[in-house]
Amino acid sequence: xxxxxxxxxxxxxxxxxxxxxxxxxxxxxxxxxxxxxxxxxxxxxxxxxxxxxxxxxxxxxxxxxxxxxxxxxxxxxxxxxxxxxxxxxxxxxxxxxxxxxxxxxxxxxxxxxxxxxxxxxxxxxxxxxxxxxxxxxxxxxxxxxxxxxxxxxxxxxxxxxxxxxxxxxxxxxxxxxxxxxxxxxxxxxxxxxxxxxxxxxxxxxxxxxxxxxxxxxxxxxxxxxxxxxxxxxxxxxxxxxxxxxxxxxxxxxxxxxxxxxxxxxxxxxxxxxxxxxxxxxxxxxxxxxxxxxxxxxxxxxxxxxxxxxxxxxxxxxxxxxxxxxxxxxxxxxxxxxxxxxxxxxxxxxxxxxxxxxxxxxxxxxxxxxxxxxxxxxxxxxxxxxxxxxxxxxxxxxxxxxxxxxxxxxxxxxxxxxxxxxxxxxxxxxxxxxxxxxxxxxxxxxxxxxxxxxxxxxxxxxxxxxxxxxxxxxxxxxxxxxxxxxxxxxxxxxxxxxxxxxxxxxxxxxxxxxxxxxxxxxxxxxxxxxxxxxxxxxxxxxxxxxxxxxxxxxxxxxxxxxxxxxxxxxxxxxxxxxxxxxxxxxxxxxxxxxxxxxxxxxxxxxxxxxxxxxxxxxxxxxxxxxxxxxxxxxxxxxxxxxxxxxxxxxxxx
Amino acid sequence: xxxxxxxxxxxxxxxxxxxxxxxxxxxxxxxxxxxxxxxxxxxxxxxxxxxxxxxxxxxxxxxxxxxxxxxxxxxxxxxxxxxxxxxxxxxxxxxxxxxxxxxxxxxxxxxxxxxxxxxxxxxxxxxxxxxxxxxxxxxxxxxxxxxxxxxxxxxxxxxxxxxxxxxxxxxxxxxxxxxxxxxxxxxxxxxxxxxxxxxxxxxxxxxxxxxxx
Amino acid sequence: xxxxxxxxxxxxxxxxxxxxxxxxxxxxxxxxxxxxxxxxxxxxxxxxxxxxxxxxxxxxxxxxxxxxxxxxxxxxxxxxxxxxxxxxxxxxxxxxxxxxxxxxxxxxxxxxxxxxxxxxxxxxxxxxxxxxxxxxxxxxxxxxxxxxxxxxxxxxxxxxxxxxxxxxxxxxxxxxxxxxxxxxxxxxxxxxxxxxxxxxxxxxxxxxxxxxxxxxxxxxxxxxxxxxxxxxxxxxxxxxxxxxxxxxxxxxxxxxxxxxxxxxxxxxxxxxxxxxxxxxxxxxxxxxxxxxxxxxxxxxxxxxx
Amino acid sequence: xxxxxxxxxxxxxxxxxxxxxxxxxxxxxxxxxxxxxxxxxxxxxxxxxxxxxxxxxxxxxxxxxxxxxxxxxxxxxxxxxxxxxxxxxxxxxxxxxxxxxxxxxxxxxxxxxxxxxxxxxxxxxxxxxxxxxxxxxxxxxxxxxxxxxxxxxxxxxxxxxxxxxxxxxxxxxxxxxxxxxxxxxxxxxxxxxxxxxxxxxxxxxxxxxxxxxxxxxxxxxxxxxxxxxxxxxxxxxxxxxxxxxxxxxxxxxxxxxxxxxxxxxxxxxxxxxxxxxxxxxxxxxxxxxxxxxxxxxxxxxxxxxxxxxxxxxxxxxxxxxxxxxxxxxxxxxxxxxxxxxxxxxxxxxxxxxxxxxxxxxxxxxxxxxxxxxxxxxxxxxxxxxxxxxxxxxxxxxxxxxxxxxxxxxxxxxxxxxxxxxxxxxxxxxxxxxxxxxxxxxxxxxxxxxxxxxxxxxxxxxxxxxxxxxxxxxxxx
Lengths: 652, 213, 305, 476
Known about the structure:
The structure holds four protein chains of four kinds. Helices cover 72% and strands 3% of the residues of chain A. Chain A is mainly alpha-helical. Chain A has a domain at 562-587 and 597-650. In chain A, the strands form two sheets. In chain A, strands 1-2 form a two-stranded antiparallel sheet. A two-stranded antiparallel ribbon of chain A has the order 4-5. In chain A, helix 2 (25-53) packs antiparallel against helix 3 (75-98). Chain A starts with a helix and ends with a helix. Chain C contains twelve helices and one strand, in the order H-H-E-H-H-H-H-H-H-H-H-H-H. The relative contact order of chain C is 0.17. Chain C is mostly helical. The two termini of chain C are 37 Å apart. Chain C has one domain. Chain D is an all-alpha fold. Chain D has one domain (136-471). The model of chain D has no long low-confidence stretch (mean pLDDT 89). Chains in contact: A-B, A-C, A-D, B-D. Chains A and C meet through helix 14, helix 15, helix 16, helix 20 and strand 3 of A and strand 1, helix 3, helix 4, helix 5 and helix 10 of C. Strand 3 of chain A pairs parallel with strand 1 of chain C, so a sheet runs across the interface.
């Protein structure tokens, strides 16, 4: 365990160092990234050793007589540590060229400090072994990510997003603390080990409260709407880390406390599954409606969290129906999708960051034709989108394939409850189709066609340090897609700590599935290579000329005539109207000499509007009514004192 | 047999009624002076421990409570505020009615307790409670700042009377400490009044209403 | 060895069967119609020609035809043609095939948007939307097959050895499944009620408009890919109609080719009888097929014969 | 070394301050601060006997509050050195004198054991702090002082009435016990129950007025926002603790007279009311010093709530007391800087604090993060303890109301603090951030962080003893 502490110490130094040498901008960034990456790499060794040897590293120190900080690493937490450390390294490298404003040197130094604090707190959340350490690490994680979100606080939206995020972390923490309180009442101590002794119905109540609390961090449907505000506001490498790893801490919390509670009621699995389905579909439909590229990616994170929850729900149903194969497949599918999502989502956010940094525009309808100008970013973004839509040769497909497999297996077991598995498969199919539409829209509008504005035209390729992480991540997407064996085995060992999995049936299935996927991917590459040869042969000495696009006879097409994101998604959004109501602001043309009119349409988040209208406003109105107490008249103030005494005297 | 204790407590109740009914500030200050004197003398009579130490001590207390504090108030009225009239929150006849209510309430409250001392001197507890309630009435019902100080003084007198009369072991030093506090309190209130008069050129608490939420 | 031959036959006959549809439509229109080998001539002509590329296109425009044709080929590799052993088959290959179709759709849409022309954008938007609904039906049919066979590979459903004698096991709801699959075939392969392959008015096209800007060998690859995809769907329907237990290989292939002819004829008839639906009516049409498939699954679940 | 030095030295220094010139006054202030701090540490270890030992005696809770007072007074005196140079106060000698008197009276309150002597000390603190609020001589400060003096004096008079009723409960029971907190707690069993409860109610309402509990809190926002910042730091940081001391000792008496349930419910009711009242005014507020004042009311409510619940929540309440004093006074000192810089108390007139006064921004924002109860600072621990304690007692509804109000308050606080720190505004800042203007705040925050993770054993034992009477078997 002490190598892990050494790595955390290195990361902390990486965070503190820039504060000292914030005069020399590049040197400060270089040193800080060096230390953070060194710390993460150093941290990987004990994690890998602990994970594959299956040994449990523990550490315990008590602050003062009542509380104690205890850390423990088992299979599940080691599995989560991999993406945390790897993605942090790539995020740090990416930030070197991304933070390119020397005049904001000190602010960048402070953001590096909170960047390292975020990493450390995430590692501690995953290693926590009692309620107090978990609460402490959870709060530090929220706090450090809050400071990262409000990095460039000059802009109004960033401040609003920061405030939104802060209130949400407080809401989440409140619910989690309340559930810890209930656990404390029944177990009497703050340890994790004694949680399973609490009575059955209390287990359900605690799980639901924890599900909502962790859901507010993970971005589950009704409590997700801070995500689309926080991610566009944060700098890209931060939103990559937040979307890639931090929201997974919510999922980790749900899994960890599901294990600890140890209740195998089927209702829990059904709740998780239902919320997974709703979150998935709702997230991707909203993503289709967004015009800001980072908001779109934030909503697509919500969708992927939905898929992960579907996998978890299947696993939980598998456990409650005593079907170890179904449970193992469901859990390993969810965990694998979680790992894959952290890879391609970080890739997509880095791509979006590069685009925004070079063009300065965030709305996709003002971009276009960037593939020709930013080749590497374009290609890596294309690979990321292929992966996130779950298409075969890439890693998105592997996670979803396992969950499909579990869904289909579920049909044969669940004679009496056919509906859950039916929902699993159909929702995944619907989400897959919508994801395909969403990401073809992004790439088609942003990277292909003609540039729609001046800034998009002059865009050039991002800095070297931004391209390296993107290239590594896209290579990882391809590698996991083609050779998923190792990663599926990792997911299975991690899900083993979730429930008792008979060793034999699992490994045989795992090897069979991974060999099938590898074979399919190789087959695809083979046939494509074959056809490519055929095509080059067909084009050997043919005349290839360049001309303008065929416009059905229209001679002067302008970039404005291209299809825009809004029109691309119009039909789909019209079909899913209740999920994504559009607020259209378009003064009607009237009168003999009509004034010039305009058309603004905005997709509103039904969760956000309803929660604000039905929950927040009434509370504020109620508290507003109490304001008359402080009206300034001294006589009445003394009257309050007498009133208090008289009321109390009645109670003797 | 009319004991001096009963006469004095009767005087106290009458003084409360008179203070409540009066319109000017100067008469009220005179009433408070009277009450001050009675309140210090009564416990001595009640417990009959007329040792020389307690007598001297009683005299000092009477001097402060009966003379120094009212003179301070009188000085602040005449030299600082120059205005004698008093615009109460509720009209005069309403205040007299309130005064009667106070006396009835104090008699009703004191009837509920059974103290050994009460048997011989039934009137002392109602007097104390009525002085106390009178103080509170002046704090709430009068708009002028000075009357609030007077109200505070009457409240103190009421509490002192309850304390001294009902519990036997009154430490002189502790009583003196309380009185010292009250004296400094009135001086501070006087200084604040002086500043308010200079800033607002009127001590009507209706002006003191700017700080609100 | 026989599966390779059968594969070669299907690939070769795909353009021929596509011409059958045009022949049937011409017959209904009282015209003589183009010769049955018209598609072979166009393919050869296109392979001989050079290509014209628009300036705004990138490498994706060249990659998309390759991906489309290779997906159609791979899909045929997994198909148990006429009940025989397919070249490849593994547990879960059905999901892989459906997602392969997604991959080809991904690149076709991107190629459409690459040319920066409003017409192609229109086609891509419609293609993206209708395919989502079609996938729902396909997965419901897959659930139905899994309910019966507890297996996840095409060969397990239609292969000669362990084919699930569909008429006995499913019984009458099989007609609903065939109709649902037929509607999906029409949507996926841009036949009339959903899309009109013959027209060149961009407002009405979906698939044609996406390959508007392709030329020369690229266009040939795309055309061939489309025809192969059509024959894959039709052979699925053929396997459903009669599961080819006629003993000898020759009899099976003859029956298979005959049924294919019947299905293509059926497609030709539907194209000439029904006009193209309004764009807003097509989602209802596809959801109708989804309802059919769902109803069939429920019937089978409730009354397992 | 007799205990009463604690009392006389600041008293004499206060008198001296009125006659000395300003330069020496500042030195006088700091030296008395150092002396007081040293002497309270001496008291903590040696525990010397008092001369008038029937009036003064060292109790564990008194000791805790004394330590906090002397540490904070020392820090505030350092701050006021540069504060007096920068600000244009007319009568600086009054400031120094009344600060010293304020220290004397507060120390007297912490060590006094006799009920009435404790009352005299608390009344004296009101009178000593009244001139502090009066210093600016603006209309608002006059109004604030007037309200402060009147309401507090009336409130504390009722507390005197309460103490008198306690003496009556002794007479009726016919028990001969000296009128000190310690003696009463030991022999609380034989006292008359009804009179004891009546006495407790008057004492609670009396000292509750001084502590700022809900219905009687009306004077607090005016007084604390009008006083000069170092004074309001002391007012908010420490004075409320002294008032809480009275309530803690009296509820100790009632707990040992096994009236614990009654006192618990009353304290919880008052705690909740103050949290709700402060939530109403923090949600919509225009003046940042009033914002901090309302948050003091809220925190005092939490402390009362914790004491009412008992068990580990009582332990949490004492921790909350310590950390709240540290963080709140550092916040008031930073708000002093903001007032000196921007010249106005209105939130809309301030902005982009991070740009103009970066060091004050760090202290201010750090303090708010601590106040809201986020980890590095101690309030996170105490809030967690109180929540866990409340759940353990099974009071679900009450604790959920508290949690919701805490959430609203943290949202309200953060909204205005972000407005002050980040809203872009173009002004010229007169203040030059001298080290003594931000180092004191920083040290307070650092102490809170240290105490959050490591409490020295001696301090821990003192805390356990201080809540032994009301904690009902929680021995750490």
